[in-house]
């Protein structure tokens, strides 16, 4: 074989290899302009983020994170963008969490995505917390795990009667991350510890009553709320808060309903004030009430390791800054994954 022929074959091989790599990246991202996983739009006075994977309940993946983070930073510096709105497409979910299936498959294949995903997700959580523009999360529908991280650190969180909040990680061998070690211990009493260990689901106005949401709006008014926010002219934070408060005040759904856990809060504060899982379990057993035994049954189905990690995480996080908590949670995530 002559030198020229060998170069030609090598060139064809390298070209084929490059093509395969490009195709692989396209398959991994599954991202096209026709069906973008996340929509990033400037509308009126706002930057609008739409999580656009309704068939997957808007589950968050690395591709979406890598699109949202730089755009958030750009809008933060844009003098024409006065607020940022984030919402989910499809009506069923804001965001049901991180795309754990992809992360799990990557871990089995020993790929680096588990490191990248958690690191970049937590960087986004921190960017939301430190965002200099008012950040409004419309948490309509399922809001769990990673979806909580995209919303709870923002200045405003708007729930509807169809909101469904949970941190279900102890059931899958993980822990309530995305800053859960920061915001959960700061809820009333030991509510955060209870939610973290049991994965208890809060629905509708209870999401507001618990302190997860800052406002509650009837779902049929959500579109009008967004339109009114976008129509504001060079709004201040106070102008934005006034619009949200007006809609919140007009909301009638479940207006007189008491918080679902109200009658149990004294007991929850007592049971979950213990410093060990063994003592919490003993507290529930000794109480013996139907509610206590129901929670005991739930806890017994959870990963024992996850329960212990989570309790310690919340105890440590109660006195840390969000950045310190996210650093701790990144290290925990890697220990849990590998």
List keywords for this structure.
single chain; 338 residues; alpha/beta; 6-stranded mixed beta sheet; 51% helix
Q: What layout of secondary structure does this protein have?
A:
Blueprint: H1 3-29, E1 38-43, E2 46-51, H2 62-77, E3 83-88, E4 93-95, H3 100-108, H4 113-130, E5 135-139, E6 142-144, H5 146-149, E7 156-159, E8 164-166, H6 180-183, H7 191-198, E9 202-203, H8 205-209, E10 215-216, H9 222-230, H10 237-250, H11 265-271, H12 277-287, H13 290-299, H14 304-317, H15 322-337
Parallel strand pairs: 2-3, 3-5, 4-6, 5-7, 6-8, 7-10
Antiparallel strand pairs: 1-2, 8-9
What does this structure look like?
Helices cover 51% and strands 12% of the residues. The protein has a 6-stranded mixed β-sheet with strand order 1-2-3-5-7-10, with helices on both faces. The chain has a 4-stranded mixed β-sheet with strand order 4-6-8-9. Helix 2 runs parallel beside helix 4 and helix 7 packs antiparallel against helix 14 (304-317). It has 15 helices and 10 strands. It is of the alpha/beta class and 338 residues long. The N and C termini lie far apart (48 Å). 40% of the residues are buried. Mean pLDDT is 91; it is low at 13-34. It is globular. Strand 1 and strand 2 form a beta hairpin.
């Amino acid at each position: 074989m002559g030198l020229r022929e060998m170069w030609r074959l090598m060139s064809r091989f390298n070209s084929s290899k490059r093509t395969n790599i490009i195709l692989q990246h396209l398959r991994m991202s599954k991202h096209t302009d026709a069906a973008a996983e996340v929509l990033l739009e400037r509308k009126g006075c706002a930057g609008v983020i739409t999580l656009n994977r309704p068939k997957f309940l808007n589950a968050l993946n690395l591709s979406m994170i890598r699109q949202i983070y730089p755009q958030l930073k750009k809008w933060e510096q844009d003098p024409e963008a006065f607020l940022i709105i984030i919402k989910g497409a499809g009506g069923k979910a804001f965001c049901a969490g991180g795309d754990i299936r992809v992360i799990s498959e990557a871990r089995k294949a020993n790929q680096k995505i588990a490191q990248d995903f958690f690191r970049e997700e937590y960087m986004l959580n921190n960017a939301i917390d430190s965002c200099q523009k008012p950040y409004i999360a419309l948490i309509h529908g399922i809001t769990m795990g990673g979806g909580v991280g995209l919303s709870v650190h923002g200045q405003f969180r708007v729930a509807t009667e169809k909101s469904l909040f949970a941190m279900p990680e102890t059931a899958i061998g993980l822990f309530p991350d995305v800053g859960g070690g920061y915001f959960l211990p700061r809820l009333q009493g030991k509510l955060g510890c209870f939610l973290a260990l049991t994965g208890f689901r809060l629905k509708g106005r209870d999401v507001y009553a618990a302190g997860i949401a800052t406002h509650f709006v009837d779902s049929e008014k959500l579109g009008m709320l967004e339109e009114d926010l976008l129509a504001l002219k060079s709004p201040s934070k106070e102008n934005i808060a006034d619009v949200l408060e007006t809609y919140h005040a007009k909301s009638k759904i479940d207006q007189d309903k008491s918080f679902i856990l109200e009658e149990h809060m004294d007991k929850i504060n007592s049971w979950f004030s213990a410093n060990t899982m063994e003592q919490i379990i003993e507290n529930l057993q000794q109480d013996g009430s139907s509610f206590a035994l129901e929670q005991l049954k739930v806890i017994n189905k959870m990963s024992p390791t996850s329960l212990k990690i989570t309790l310690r995480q919340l105890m440590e996080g109660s006195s840390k800054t969000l950045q310190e908590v996210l650093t701790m949670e990144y290290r925990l995530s890697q220990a849990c994954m590998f």
